[in-house]
Amino acid sequence: MATSSIASKLAALKRQQLALEKKQKALASKDTAKAIFKIKEIFKNTPELTTEQVKEALGSTKGKKASAKKASGGSKLAGKKVAPKYRNPANSSETWTGRGKAPI
Description:
This protein is mainly α. It has a domain at 34-59. 61% of the residues lie in helices and 4% in strands. The longest helix is centred in the first third of the chain and has 44 residues, at 2-45.
């Protein structure tokens, strides 16, 4: 008898959990819809506001990557093309910019 009462209590708790999860999803969906409506109203009433300004204010991912790179000591010239500084006297088509591993 004890196991059947535990099983029935467990089943009741699972039903209650499912009902609460359903309510939570409904409330979250309602809150999201309200937030989107407010954002649309703000954009409609403020035509000079751009999506780029909103992304910047919210901290877009591109800005975070750039600031993280600067914080880690990355060079702002990394990945950019620069003019060669050195030429091979025997073969003028072989050049080196002075970056990276020196040629042999």
